[in-house]
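Record type: monomer structure entry
Structure origin: computed from sequence
Chain ID: A
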Amino acid sequence: MSIGPNPAEPHESGPAKQPPGQAEQPERSEPAEQPQAQHAWDARRDLDAHAPHSMSFDGTNHGVTAQQIIGDIHQHYDFGGFRATHASGEIPQETLDRLADGFVTEGTGFEALVERLRLERILVLTGDPHTGRRTAALMLLRAVGAVPVQSVDRGAKPEDVVPGEHCGQVFFDLEPTRAHPLREAQLLAVRDRLRAKHSFMVITTGHSPYIEDTVRLASWQPPPARAVLTSLLNRRVDAVAAERLLNLPAVASFLARDQQLREVAPYADVLVQSDPTEIEQYAQRTLERQVQEWFEESENTFPLREKAFLIALAAFNNGPYALTAELSDKLFERLRKTGDPDHGERIPVFGTHIGKRLQVARARLKPSDVKTEWGPIRQLTAAFNDEGAAPVLLKEVWTSHPAARPALTGWLDELSTDGRPFVRTRAAATVAVLALADLPSAMALVIERWADSRNPRQQLTAVSALTFAHRIKAPNVPRIIDGWSADSDAPKRCWVAIRAHGLIGPERPVETLGALRAQARTQYGNSEADDRISEELPDSVALLLLSDAGDTALRELLRTFTDHPSTRALALAGFLNACSRTDDGPCPPLLAWYARTTSAADGIALLLRTALGDRETNRRAEEVLHGWVRAADQDPGTEDALATLLPALVTEPREAARLEHLLDTVPGLDGRPKPAAAARLLTLVRPLAPV
């Protein structure tokens, strides 16, 4: 049986099978060499470095839960506010009075805007959607006495409006275009007519490049959500009850999510009803409602390219904006071909307004240090304001819009073979969320194909997907990898499972080692043994030994050490792989474990002593000790740990003589002299050797 520590050699690779329903992709020439399978330690490093915040490996789950992914929406809320219609007409006075009753001006600069309107007669009020800008426009007109208020049809142009006497005119959500920009000359002409009629006008609009620079805009900043909620509660309950409700943990969490004002008003009703379940779940349900709205919108009002960006942002949340935008256009291309295979229009290279795109996505842009293989690099990253948005969005796309699946799986296939570890890791995390929402489909359409792929990157992404899926509590992942790891007739899936065992094994070390031992026995002495599987088995054992479950894993290895030659070989190979591991600390991890443990110290000494005395492993064990002595030469703590370990490796004169010879012949690195620590350690061993 070959259970060596060497990484897998390059092996034949080819493209993954085309998923059902996906448009045929143009052939690409195969690269001259396929990438080697990534080492287990590097795979674990990438999982740690690039996992979404909600799938971190520090023992906590920061956001993705089964309720968020597969929970049902039991109640729908009618978000408040003033909804403009396309038709013109007078806005009823009772509507104005109702809006005025709940209007909050705190933090808005409302009084200054009133004075500007009174002086200038016309205001172009800009602001983000769902910030109350329509209501603000009506309240501004009401404040200057411009009633009744006429809503002007969106199809009209401001300069074509003929104002009435002593009234207000409001344009809701004007959308300037390249063909019909908003110019200062238009507004000046309207202002003269308004002044002659003693009337006023407010135009609301979003951020647009088609507004002339000389147009003086009035920016609308909404009141704080807490101020609005406080105002609403104070009109419904007494001050003591309002304060108690505002101090509920669920309310604090809700307000911290940067909620839109249209979501705040219904929450006041929920709080007044005092149903604890509804209070706790309201924020999650408003998030689900928002995601549904995004994908229910027609492409005329919410373009497909922006929907593709939302999906990419969910996959690469907190990742570099430029990368997210780049890969979202690849998804857009696939989605467009799904809806219209003959569509030949090119993706526009320029013309995307980053601020507007992120505002619609309820996301933010911030500089962050992004981990790369070259160290941290400062980049602009994009992230949803609500960390819970990403999994909810992916679940919505996967389960509610199945027509998008061929494009989505094709896109994920492309990501799974990308040369950037961050991209591959996020592709795996995305598939994990899909598996939590619909495991059978995710397995059949993605994970099983990746596991069977001849491309090592795609196989590794399958490993990561299973690992992440288990991390967020997708069902039956241990059962899947237990089954695959026992199936020698499907060596690719078996290899994927063995690697996955090493990554999720710390949660179930006894069962994991049982599965690894079973496959080791299958491979042992088998003339048709699979080299990749044989080489992966000890790496998974090493990952277990250097995990939080190391004590349990070590006891289990020792318990079955003499059961069969394969269990002995697996234990020694895995142990030596763990011994060979180094990290950023000065002391090798396994030696550091020996120094701090009492329960595992005897077992560590026993395995190292056995490896030194075994003909098959003696050379590797000596190389391990040579490396530790050289490390001890650079770090006093490492030397102290080694000084404690070396006497424990001696139970008979021959073992002492072996250690004496080993320390006397430690080579320095790159032709340097023998480490000085070797001579100091030799003084501890020499008295144990026979005279």
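Annotation 1: Strands lie at 89-91, 122-126, 149-152, 168-174, 200-205, 217-219, 319-320, 363-370, 377-384.
Annotation 2: Residues 509 and 553 are 6 Å apart (CA to CA).
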